[in-house]
Amino acid sequence: MAHSPSFMATAPIPVTLIAGDGIGPEITQATKAVLSALKAPFAWDEQHAGAEICEKTGTPLPEETLKSLETTRLALKAPLATPSGTGFRSINVTLRQKFDLYANIRPARTLIPQADLARYNDIDIVLIRENIEGYYAAREYYLPHGGDPQGMALSAGYTTREECRRIVTHAFEYALAHGRKKVTLVHKANILKYLSGLFLEVGQDVAASYAGRVAYDERIVDACAMQLCLNPSQFDVIVTTNLFGDILSDQISGLTGGLGLAPGANIGENMAIFEAVHGSAPNLAGQNKANPTALILASALMLDHVGQTALATRLRTAIQETLLSGPRTADIGGTATTEEFTQAVISRLTS
Fold first, then answer.
1. Annotation says 188 is catalytic
2. Highest CATH level, class, for 113-255
3. Catalytic residue among 188, 210, 236, 331
4. Per the residue annotation, which of 32, 45, 120, 136 is the catalytic one?
5. Is position 182 annotated as part of the catalytic site?
6. Which of 42, 72, 280, 303 makes an SS bond possible with 14, Cβ 3.0 to 4.6 Å?
7. Domain locations in the chain?
8. CATH code for 1-112+257-351?
9. Is the per-residue pLDDT at 234 higher than 70?
10. Model-wide pTM > 0.70
11. CB of 59 closer than 8 Å to CB of 28
12. Can the peptide bond before residue 327 be classed as cis, meaning omega within 30 degrees of 0?
């Protein structure tokens, strides 16, 4: 995930920063503090999105935020809540489609080994999900059925040959760039003959052009889900479609400790948005209990993206050491507050 050469300069890199809803502002402040201690070369343009700003402005995605994203082409985003009962669609889906963020990258690695879960102690999987087509871009309708004018719901998802080629190629190029050995394509072509069959057909064609450089295999999605539980070490890079990727990425996060440890990246040709993939957890907001790890790890992905790999490695090492020896927040078996966990990471960065 390399950014354009212009981002390799020593000048501060402009980044749109969206603190989001619920626990978002708390984990955003924690992440900013950690990145400041790391001396990361980011200049923040703080903007708003989500349910809270919608109450004030009438829109969950203000024009000022969109203008900032169009200018910086780089963003770090905390969890957003989509206003309910208002007709607004998911903000995350809107951003992905508006800015053509076609590749969702979800790395999952075991950070806290546990003796009673030995088969999950060495997980190191990257799931690459097609991000703008499939059922998440579906047109949905009610149709008459059985005398009820809305007795049937119809959802018409789609996939294009061009997009299949782009996302599978991205997965193989990611594998080459990061020293990965194998790409597994996950599909449901045995049932969805056209929708998933096209993905499989194109994937096989792309894989052939990488023969001898990156190994390739394929799995039906339900079999993959089972095999992830039984023997996750057989997987390296997984590439799949939008809906399947959404489900499997959360499953893999569950195997490695939960969404509180799960960063994500949304990559397009000319923009990238990095995020914590967990929810806004409004029940924890303002209580100094939230785990900022996912957003901090998302910022490490952003450092990689702009060519600051040494800083990214230092940051991941500090997180790993803190998680191994403590303190930890309550969601991962500890008692630390957000501030205590953040200060422990900062201490490891500055010692």
1. yes
2. alpha beta
3. 188
4. 136
5. no
6. 72
7. 1-112+257-351, 113-255
8. 3.40.718.10
9. yes
10. yes
11. no
12. yes
